[in-house]
Amino acid sequence: GIRDISVWLEFRRVLFRSNIKPIENPIEKIKQISGNTFEWIEDTNTVGKVHGNVGKDVGVIAQEIEAVLPEIVTTRDSGMKAVKYEKLVALLIEAVKEQQKQIDELKAKL
């Protein structure tokens, strides 16, 4: 039943991973990156377009991410860097937990 599926999923989660540990200094890492709004510059390459994006967008600077969490940045054949945005969630989770710990410690001092 449901319990068997849960046990199997938990087993698979650990089975294919080793050296599991929390991201260190997540708040310091967050402080080194910026969230930005920007407008895409038209890609005028006629052969091998670098990107097909247009208009306003939001994002991060790949080089900033690479400096703090290089595992989630790839370099494409074109030389452009790309961020695996879904992987930023792990950093944000750890940062929120660390921040909450700080809040709790401050509350305890009141």
Structure description:
This protein is of the alpha+beta class and 110 residues long. The chain contains four helices and four strands; from the N terminus they run H-H-E-E-H-E-E-H. The strands form two sheets. Strands 1-2 form a two-stranded antiparallel ribbon. Strand 3 (73-75) and strand 4 form a beta hairpin. The longest helix has 22 residues, at 88-109. The model has no long low-confidence stretch (mean pLDDT 87).
Topology:
Elements: H1 2-15, H2 26-31, E1 35-39, E2 56-60, H3 62-68, E3 73-75, E4 81-83, H4 88-109
Antiparallel strand pairs: 1-2, 3-4
Short description:
With 110 residues, the chain is α+β, with helices and mostly antiparallel strands. The protein has four helices and four strands.
Return Rg in Å.
19 Å
Order of adjacent strands in the largest pleated sheet? 1-2
User: Which percent range fits the helix content?
Assistant: 40-55%
* Major sheet description: 2 strands, antiparallel
Kindly estimate the percentage of residues that lie in beta strands according to DSSP.
5-15%
Bulk shape: extended
- Structural class of the helices, strands and pairings? alpha+beta
Number of E-type strands: 4
Low-confidence stretches: none
- Total helical segments: 4
Q: Can you give the mean pLDDT?
A: 87
What is the N-to-C order of secondary-structure elements (H for helix, E for strand)? HHEEHEEH
Task: Give the N-to-C terminal Cα separation.
Answer: 48 Å
